[in-house]
Amino acid sequence: MERPKIAQSLIVFMLAGTLLTSCRSSDPTDPGYEYMPQMYRSPSYETNSMNPNFKDSMTSRLPVQGSIPRGFKPYAYPNTLEGYEAAGKDLKNPFTATDENVAEGKRLFEIFCMHCHGAQGKGDGMMVMNGKFPPPPSYSGPLKDLTVGKMYHTLQYGKNMMGSHASQLNVDERWKIILYVQALQKLGNDSTAQTK
Ligand code: HEC
After folding, report:
1. Which of 9, 14, 59, 126 is such that its CA lies 20 to 30 A from the CA of 172?
2. Distances (CA, A) of 102 to 73, 154, 183, 184
3. Whose CA is nearest to atom 13 of ligand 1?
4. How many CA atoms lie within 13 Å of 53's alpha carbon, on the beta-carbon side?
């Protein structure tokens, strides 16, 4: 009795195999029968595609108002004269002027600031010397007593002709550059003075 049963199931198995494989279309690129097609074809919307589920039809959504990205430190002072004065009074540099921090500040200054402010912060950078930009005031001249809070505020929002650097420099980088600007403030107006 055992033998015919095995033969029977073998025939059913082969028949099922033939049926399944012969259901393919003649197109060789057609995958044929797909088991759980949603695993292959995601029902999600492409980032920049129209989306019927939202009134403004944008698939790419903005973060919920008031949400803060991980690791991001909100800046408490508004972009006003009062904000500038308050930041100037309250903010302190969390970094100390170790050789390492000042050297890092110098490195960043030479990338992001020197072309306008000049190597010694005297307002004679390359952009100024070739007439493309009006000279910024000298750090060791009119800006020699400028507080670090005001510097930070200017890096955050920009000031007149100087643009904001908030998207180029993270909080720590800004403070390290400020350490170097403080070193340049001490140079005095003698243009032959050197920083270490
Ligand atoms: C495109 C040219 C340009 C670049 C780049 C630039 N600055 Fe300035 N910066 C200026 C000008 C112009 C002013 C004068 C703004 C004013 O007071 O009207 C200024 C002003 C300043 C002041 C004085 C702000 C105050 O409160 O009066 C500081 C400090 C300063 N810049 C630092 C930096 C640092 C640090 C960088 C690099 C991260 C930088 N700047 C990059 C052009 C530039």
Report:
1. 126
2. 23, 19, 8, 11
3. 136
4. 6
Taking the chain, what is the end-to-end CA distance rounded to the nearest angstrom? Answer: 99
Question: For residues 151 and 184, what is the distance between their CA atoms, to the nearest angstrom?
Answer: 13
Q: 117 CA distance to ligand 1 centroid (A)?
A: 7
Report CA(28)–ligand 1 centroid distance (Å): 64
Can you tell me which residue has the tokens 């009062």?
82
Cβ 184 under 6 angstroms from ligand 1: no
pLDDT (tens digit, 0 to 9) for every residue of the chain, 196 residues total? 556 788 888 888 888 766 666 555 678 888 778 888 878 777 788 899 999 999 999 999 998 988 888 877 789 999 999 999 999 999 999 999 999 999 999 999 999 999 999 999 999 999 999 998 999 999 999 999 999 999 999 999 999 999 999 999 999 999 999 999 999 999 976 544 444 4
User: How many Cα neighbours within 13 Å face the side chain of 151?
Assistant: 23
Q: Tokens 């006003």 belong to which residue?
A: 80
Q: Which of 113, 138, 173 to mutate to test the pocket of ligand 1 (most atoms within 8 A of CB)?
A: 113
- The count of residues in the chain is 196
